[in-house]
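Hypothesis: this fold can be encoded by more than one sequence.
Test: take the structure tokens below, design a sequence, compare later.
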């Protein structure tokens, strides 16, 4: 048995394969040992992660944020010291957060999460298998009831309310209260706060409607006391549309109410979660698409709230993960660089740190120790979870990840099984990381002789393997131990291997503890204990027999295929007899062949190759049986790889693998190919996979060049799957948004490493599968024009003060405006304009020569003043982008001279002659203004040399005013200062125009705002004022109703306290009408104005209340007899292709709207007659009972003008040429439509005959317009090979406008002049002309809808629409031309209601 080690190495190679493709039957993990340990230490010191302040990854050497996380192994304690550090180039905030939840508490929240279930307005009955119900019960004490019959039957099924409240509770538990405050608010017909103890919403019962606007206003009130630097977050969860009704009866969402909250100063964040519903109006309340979430059940709601949690958190969150446990608890965590302590949540196994002072360049460091749990699996083990830093930069929250240290290790599992029953009585685990040489398991080092389990002693009978292995590979080592409650027999056993006619080779030498008899026919192992395992000798350890092949060992009547304890197989003599099994050898060839398996893991940018060599198989064995574990999708390095193909190489020839026929015939090499599946073209993601190899796809990414997150949106990552042979992709521009900070502008797109400009949204050619295309947006700073130097008129005046207060001066202070000549003469030096990078603006340094202005002061004092010293003054002028600005204050030029003693301050008599005090009244009461002479003790005087400052106080003057006119209070300032100078003539005001005036206002208390009406008040006021009528069946009598709970809501006017509006929603009345068998046929709701009568102390309506809602039923009206009429078509200078004549009559049903397919095909009388014009265009014409005639005229067109339509007479029917307000010309185009053949094919670049008409097509089914006659000549049709007959379906599009340069207007108003008419038209985001009602920029417009060749023009003035008269603004003031007036009086004196309709 010399070559025992070879067998172990072969098994080790097999186990390497097991780690890749799964377990291999018959191979014991415990049998892997004896090899030198590879370098498996893992990554204890991963590279630091670097980020920009906007959260994107940085490649700069000096990034904005640096995060580090490393580990060091402690051999003595068998644990790891983790060091986590973070620092920022400039301070980022981890500030306090205030979260306000706003939860929908309407009646539908009692439903289950299915949203396509029938809703009934009644109490459910036994026949209702699954309905959502709501109704009111009781006569005097009415009660609202709602629910779901499935929840009623199954108490374990949760309602939307239970799911939402539990999810919110879980979210706040997850976030914790560290630096986060919470408020829990709700809304239905009312609004309020959740105040429950265990669950905040346990005190709330869902009922009635969904008045979101009032709920938002209530929630906003919770933020009013927040500090300015608090992060304010509102999370709105709702399960249906709002009940608030806005303009023209549409749903009103409170975007206006949230606008200020979301603005930059407030920096409020609004997250919306649509629970079982989705609405564009609801989504619009969020701060953006990244702030809106949808959920359909409990799991997806928890996912949505968890994503919001990640956005809300600030500071460091370090979940340790499931692999490790913290050593020493919270006391084992040290923090350096911050006074804030770290917290540890043992339930979550999570460390958190949050410092209100934020994070700066000095950084913070957290240090602690962790121990790997013995239950961790073998392989790479993370020593931490996904630690993140969450912070605020600017107005946005960001979350970035720390690196993650890991260690590679082996796991040991010892299973103690009861002998005979194989019941596992105990399992012990150990884990060790590969941190150096001579690694061994720490907790389990040997197999004990006995174990104690629940008071029972078990004796170890045997062990497989016989000792604890030394770990050399990152695998799971398994030791199976047989135990018994009876002390094992200590008899000595032997195993005798009988060669059965064969012998062991002459060169074979038996190794201890085996002995070989002299005849070399019998091998014996003696001295064995009961539990020692019988070895299955094979290979070089097996005997041989001429003409035979060794097939194994026979024990009694069976072949020995697994190792068993000797004590279990021995006879009464404690011996085991094994006999060799022989099979006659039919040839001299080897019985076994050797093969190898090469696995190729192919990714777009690299290929990993794994080889497993020296495997053996029986000759002619099936290859399929040997590699079945390989030919499937497998994980590799964290990604899924798709199995695609296998090749088999024998004798130098390689063929594709056929599992049904492939067999081992000679030494074989098997190559198996896998392709990475990481990219996902279903949700445009780099991760997750979609079942398609990445090498068959192209990854397109959009980003900004060195500019953070200036390219955003869901479309910045796109995955395109290539068809076979495809080498082009066209990236989509949808959801790719380019924006930049103020002061910058977008310049170009580039591709990959090129600097050349490119349009990324055009077809990209030459692409290959697996390619990644990066498109980079480039930005540049806006050009700022350098201003000219400031001139004298822009400079401030210079102040000169004599500091000698004892001298006799006419004044002590003089001001001098700087003159141009003083700059020219160098008295004032204005410096060159330079850019100040610190403040980001241009400056000019100014220096004023003090000696020159001291001389001017001397001259002003009549030559009697001689300045003895003077200082120069310097300051900077700053350019604000439009003008030069001076600093708020500049130094004065101080001079001194010889003088005399200072005068005494001004007396009261002097001041009374100089000062008069005025009280100015403001407010609605007609109290007068009053003037007063100076009152004693109403002022203070400060004297400094020859200058005095008098401060006049308002209180005594207000007291005097109040004695005459009642209580008043000062508005604004309550003091005034006057400056006096002493001259030879005495004290004099420096500013002769200075005044002292104070503003006062009546301070009577404002009357209390009246409370809104109660539900009972409104029901009494309305009575039975609501009528529902059926518009489709006269036999259905009208019904009247009083107000139904949940259908109405009162809103007080925000500006006028004693006025308000009651909104009544129609849906509940429609459902209650005629046993609920009707649907709405009119307005969604009605509004009634109320006012508060203070004398009667009640709310009243300003007119009789009468509301009518229209309903419709499913009754089929009597079908009138169809009427038909004839339409004549006439062609001039041509013929109809159908009959070759100049006239053609077709019959249509009255009321039919003609389409392109109804127009008969024509052609000119020759190819020169190609221009065609209709007298009136047939498309869109509604057939009347009297019929009509359409005439198309062909005009001659010379060949020289075929490429120029400047002289083409388009006529009035096809709209033709037009010019916009800027003089830019173009043409109207009627998009002929989109045609799909019956087989689903879209015609492309060809001609089809559809019905009686020939149509040309561009691509993808788009027809060529008939006003492009150059495409409908015989020559043009023949050039494409003629036409073919086809049937299918048309989808008409509409009008659009094409400028001569090929561009077209979209998402804008355009003023067009054509055929002598000028009008405004609106084109949507895709360029199609709009018609009918248009809502834009919070205004309603109406665009002409008739097919009279002016469709789409803007209405102004009075127009009747659907039986109602509306007035549209005729004045072009402030861009409101065409706006519908509502709830006001028109310029000609008529009243229009809130929906814009004329009140007759």
């Amino acid at each position: 048995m010399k070559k025992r080690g070879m067998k172990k190495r072969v098994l080790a190679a097999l186990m390497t394969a097991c780690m890749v493709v799964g377990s291999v039957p018959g191979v014991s993990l415990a049998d892997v040992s004896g090899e030198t340990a590879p370098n498996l230490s893992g990554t204890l010191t991963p590279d630091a992660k670097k980020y920009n302040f906007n959260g994107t990854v940085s490649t700069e050497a000096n990034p904005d944020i640096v995060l580090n996380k490393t580990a060091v192994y402690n051999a003595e304690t068998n644990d790891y010291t983790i060091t986590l550090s973070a620092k920022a180039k400039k301070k980022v905030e981890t500030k306090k957060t205030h979260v306000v939840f706003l939860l929908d508490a309407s009646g539908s929240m009692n439903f289950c999460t299915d949203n396509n279930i029938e809703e009934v307005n009644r109490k459910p009955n036994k026949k209702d298998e699954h309905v959502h119900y709501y109704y009111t019960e009781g006569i005097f004490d009415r009660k609202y009831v709602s629910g779901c019959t499935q929840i009623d039957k199954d108490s374990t099924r949760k309602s939307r309310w239970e799911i939402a409240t539990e999810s919110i509770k879980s979210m706040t538990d997850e976030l914790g209260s560290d630096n986060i405050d919470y408020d829990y608010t709700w809304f239905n017909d009312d609004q309020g706060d959740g105040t429950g103890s265990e669950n905040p919403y346990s005190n709330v019962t869902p009922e009635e409607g969904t008045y979101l606007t009032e709920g938002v206003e209530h929630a906003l009130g919770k933020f009013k006391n927040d500090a300015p630097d608090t992060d304010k977050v509102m999370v709105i969860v709702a399960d249906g549309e709002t009940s608030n009704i806005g303009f023209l009866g549409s749903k009103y969402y409170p975007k206006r109410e949230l606008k200020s909250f979301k603005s930059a100063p407030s920096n409020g964040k609004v997250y919306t979660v649509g629970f079982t519903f989705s609405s564009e109006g609801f989504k619009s309340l969020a701060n953006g698409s990244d702030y809106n979430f949808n959920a359909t059940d409990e799991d997806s709601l928890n996912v949505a709230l968890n994503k919001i949690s990640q956005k809300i958190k600030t500071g460091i969150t370090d979940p340790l993960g499931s692999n490790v446990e913290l050593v020493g608890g919270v006391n084992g965590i040290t923090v350096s660089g911050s006074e804030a302590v770290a917290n540890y949540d043992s339930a979550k196994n999570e460390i958190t740190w949050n410092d209100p002072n934020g994070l700066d360049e000095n950084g913070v460091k957290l240090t602690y120790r962790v121990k790997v749990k013995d239950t961790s699996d073998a392989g790479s083990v993370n020593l931490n979870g996904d630690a993140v830093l969450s912070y605020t930069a600017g107005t946005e929250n960001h979350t970035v990840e720390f690196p993650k240290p890991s260690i590679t290790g082996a796991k040991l599992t010892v299973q103690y099984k009861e002998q005979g029953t194989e019941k596992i009585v105990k399992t012990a685990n150990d884990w060790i990381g590969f941190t150096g040489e001579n690694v061994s398991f720490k907790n389990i080092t040997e197999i004990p002789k006995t174990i104690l389990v629940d008071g029972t002693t078990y004796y170890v009978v045997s062990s497989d393997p016989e000792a604890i292995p030394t770990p050399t590979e990152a695998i799971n080592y398994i030791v199976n131990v047989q135990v018994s409650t009876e002390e094992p027999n200590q008899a000595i056993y032997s195993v005798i291997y009988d060669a059965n006619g064969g012998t062991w080779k002459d060169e074979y030498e038996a190794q201890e503890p085996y002995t070989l008899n002299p005849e070399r026919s019998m091998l014996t192992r003696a001295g064995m204990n009961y539990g020692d395992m019988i070895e299955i000798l094979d290979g070089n350890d097996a005997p041989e027999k001429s003409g035979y092949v060794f097939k194994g060992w026979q024990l009694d009547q069976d072949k020995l295929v697994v190792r068993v304890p000797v004590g279990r197989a021995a006879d009464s003599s404690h011996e085991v007899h094994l006999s060799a099994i022989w099979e006659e050898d039919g040839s001299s060839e080897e019985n076994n062949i050797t093969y190898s398996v090469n696995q190729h893991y192919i990714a777009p940018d690299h290929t990993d190759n794994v080889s497993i060599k020296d495997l053996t198989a029986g000759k002619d064995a099936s290859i399929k049986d040997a590699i079945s574990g390989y030919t499937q999708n497998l994980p590799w390095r964290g990604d899924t790889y798709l199995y695609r193909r296998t090749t088999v190489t024998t004798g130098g020839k390689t063929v594709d693998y056929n599992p049904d026929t492939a067999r081992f015939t000679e030494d074989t090499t098997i190559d198996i190919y896998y392709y990475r599946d990481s990219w996902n073209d279903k949700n445009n993601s780099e991760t997750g996979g979609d079942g398609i190899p990445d090498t068959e796809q192209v990854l397109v990414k959009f980003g900004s060049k060195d500019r953070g997150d200036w390219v955003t949106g869901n479309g910045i990552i796109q995955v395109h799957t290539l068809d076979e042979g495809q080498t082009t992709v066209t990236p989509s521009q949808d959801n790719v948004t380019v924006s930049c900070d103020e002061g910058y502008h977008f310049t170009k797109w580039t591709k990959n490493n090129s600097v050349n400009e490119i349009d990324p949204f055009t077809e990209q050619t030459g692409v290959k599968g697996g390619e990644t295309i990066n498109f980079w947006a480039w930005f540049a700073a806006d050009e700022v024009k350098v201003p000219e130097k400031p001139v004298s008129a822009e400079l401030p005046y210079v102040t000169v003060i004599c500091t000698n207060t004892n001298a006799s001066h006419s004044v002590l202070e003089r001001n001098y405006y700087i003159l141009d000549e003083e700059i020219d003469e160098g008295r004032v030096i204005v410096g060159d304009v330079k850019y100040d990078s610190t403040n980001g603006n241009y400056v000019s340094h100014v220096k004023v020569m003090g000696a020159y202005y001291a001389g001017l002061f001397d001259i002003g004092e009549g030559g009697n003043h001689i300045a003895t010293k003077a200082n120069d003054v310097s300051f900077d002028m700053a350019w604000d982008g439009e003008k030069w600005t001076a600093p708020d204050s500049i130094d004065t030029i101080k001079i001194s001279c010889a003088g005399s003693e200072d005068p005494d301050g001004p007396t009261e008599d002097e001041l009374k002659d100089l000062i008069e005090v005025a009280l100015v009244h403001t407010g609605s009461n007609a109290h007068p203004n009053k003037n007063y002479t100076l009152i004693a003790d109403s002022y203070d005087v400060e004297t400094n040399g020859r200058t005095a400052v008098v401060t006049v106080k308002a209180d005594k003057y207000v007291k005097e005013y109040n004695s005459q006119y009642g209580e008043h209070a000062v508005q604004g300032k309550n003091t005034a200062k006057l400056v006096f100078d002493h001259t030879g003539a005495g004290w004099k005001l420096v500013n002769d125009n200075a005044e002292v005036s104070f503003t006062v206002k009546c301070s009577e208390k404002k009357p209390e705002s009246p409370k809104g009406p109660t539900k009972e008040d409104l029901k009494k006021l309305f009575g039975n004022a609501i009528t529902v009528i059926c518009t489709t069946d006269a036999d259905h009598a009208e019904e009247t109703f009083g107000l139904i709970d949940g259908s109405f809501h009162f809103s007080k006017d925000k500006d006028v306290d004693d006025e308000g509006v009651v909104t009544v929603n129609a849906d509940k009345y429609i459902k209650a009408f005629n046993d609920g068998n009707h649907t709405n046929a009119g307005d969604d709701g009605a509004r009634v104005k109320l006012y508060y009568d203070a004398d009667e102390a009640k709310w009243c309506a300003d007119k009789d209340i009468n509301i009518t809602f229209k309903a419709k039923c499913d009754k089929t009206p009597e079908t009138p007899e169809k009427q038909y009429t004839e339409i004549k078509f006439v062609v001039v200078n041509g013929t109809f292709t159908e009959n070759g004549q100049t006239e053609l009559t077709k019959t249509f049903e009255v009321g039919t709207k003609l389409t392109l397919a109804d127009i008969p095909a024509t052609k000119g009388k020759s190819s020169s007659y190609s221009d065609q014009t209709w007298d009136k265009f047939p498309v869109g014409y509604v057939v009347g009972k009297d019929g009509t005639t359409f005439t198309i005229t062909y005009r001659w067109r010379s060949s020289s003008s075929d490429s120029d339509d400047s002289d083409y007479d388009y006529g009035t029917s096809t709209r033709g040429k037009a010019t916009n307000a800027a003089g830019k010309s173009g043409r109207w185009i009627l998009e002929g439509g989109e045609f799909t053949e019956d087989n689903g094919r879209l015609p492309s670049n060809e001609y089809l005959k559809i019905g009686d008409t020939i149509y040309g097509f561009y691509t993808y089914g788009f027809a060529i317009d008939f006003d492009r006659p150059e495409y409908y000549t015989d020559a043009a049709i023949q050039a494409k090979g003629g036409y073919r007959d086809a049937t299918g379906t048309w989808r008409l599009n509409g009008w659009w406008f094409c400028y001569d340069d090929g561009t077209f207007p979209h998402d804008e108003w355009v003023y067009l002049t054509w055929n002598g008419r000028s009008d405004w038209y609106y084109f949507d985001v895709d360029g199609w002309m709009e018609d009918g009602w248009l809502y834009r920029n919070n205004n309603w417009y109406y665009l002409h809808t008739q097919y009279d060749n002016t469709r789409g023009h803007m209405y102004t003035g009075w127009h009747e629409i659907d039986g109602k008269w509306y007035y549209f603004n005729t004045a072009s003031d402030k861009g409101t031309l065409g706006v519908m007036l509502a709830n006001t009086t028109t310029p000609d004196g008529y009243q229009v209601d809130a929906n814009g309709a004329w009140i007759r």
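The CA atoms of residues 810 and 983 lie 5 Å apart. The first strand starts at residue 49 and ends at 51.
Hypothesis status: open.
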